[in-house]
Amino acid sequence: MTNEPVVSMRELELETAELLPARETLCVSKCGYQNHGGGPSYSFTQVGYGNTAQAGLVNVALANGSFDNILSLGSGNII
Amino acid sequence: MTTDSRDPAGPPRLADGVELLGEFSGSGIAEPPGLVRRADGQVIQLSRLLYLVTRLIDGSRGPDSIAALVTAELGRSLSGDQVSYLITAKLAPLGLVTDRAKPAALPTASPLLALRARATLLPAAAADIAGTFLRPLFRWPVVAAVIIGAASLDYWILSVNGLAAALRQILGNPDDLLVVAGLSVVSALFHECGHAAGCRYGGARPGRIGVGIYLVWPSFFTNVTDSYRLSRAGRLRTDLGGLYFNLIFILALAGVYTATSWRILLLVIVLTHLEMLEQLLPFVRFDGYFILSDLVGVPDLFTRVVPVVRGTLSRRYRDPRATGLRRCARIVITAWVLCVIPLLTLTLGYLLLHLPQADRALWHSMTQAAHLAAAAVAGHQYGDAAADAIGAALAAVSIAGSLYIAAGLLRRGISLGSRWSAGRPARRLLAVIAAIACTVPLTLLWLAQGQFSDW
User: Hey, are the CB atoms on A19 and B44 less than 8 Å from each other?
Assistant: First the structure.
């Protein structure tokens, strides 16, 4: 006869097993590029959505001869 | 032999290839769980009692014998019938034991916001060799030298050379673009080697290094699933290995810049810094997510979202995934959930509201870049052609990614609605009404804004 407290069926039902996802470290490459045909103009989107229409957190764009949009925070659109 | 004669199935046995990985170190769960891995590589986290039972299954002990040993270890009384219940109801459906009611298809994790469309660049054996070769870079003197060197470089760029000077690199020449794009790719691959080396340094074996699509972006990845078995420090080293290797890459570029004065390298150094900052975001599965996950000791934070929200809304709701957490882990995860829900809702909501419009812009960008690439090839301007081709490919990947996300949301919504309303006609009706209430206004909005026109 043991004196240990008994494990109840309710406790057994709550015992959990969790399928863990594969640990996959990511390095996202978001080098974007735009050429408007009239002359070269390139952009590098570090964080954003796509490489033209962007809704990201940080947008870096380097345009030929213009630095108006070197580093913009928030939602941007460089179409 | 301690077989219980009353069990017609005989003593339970672990399925072939099941490996016990031990207790999950530094766990944020009050009763530290254990980890097992199936032959197919699926890692499963078991509650303490389930892990104790699994550990004692050896093909010779029957349920009564296992119950006696568990009782002694747990300090609570467990019967043979209860062990049989755990084996049949909990372990067998996961494919961890043989000769029982084996499921037709083994369940596998289907994580939210995971990488898709994976392709292998470096198989596991090669990644292991690369990790072993680069492992000495994690020795403390080397780490200290790299951190001091990177801090000095940043001071020089920010205070002496000036950030603007680094950014004042006009990429008017497609060859420059290709150099920057090429170095970004090398930097990303080296980043992944950092994870593999960190994993190897801790004693775990890295899996393959490859490329896939994450959300809407192409992404390199390293499978470091084996690092689950490491201590918390070992897992954090694996998580931070990529950023650490970014610092090494930056120092190498600075060395080349010192020798050549090629200013475009300063631009790459600044862009790599921005990439590193991005990697620290904890809201999607970047390095910051794994760092936060390992700091609180909870492997998959996304699985905690629903239990935490429901537990916050109703005190009667008790899910062990929320209630079983240590206080500190629960506070951090609740704060994370409170941030991640509005952030992902806004991001995905924005994507859905503007999906046709965004894809139209990407489509135009892609076709224009493709035409320009063809024209550049015809004019023997191969640098231009390559740059245009990269632009077209990235736009195509973004379109595919956005459609995949939309389809995934739709699929999950239907699956959730079906499960919630299964066998309950009133709920099914409500689910259909909710689906119509979501899709009809969205479609009308797209039509009213002319998002389907001008393709």
Answer: yes
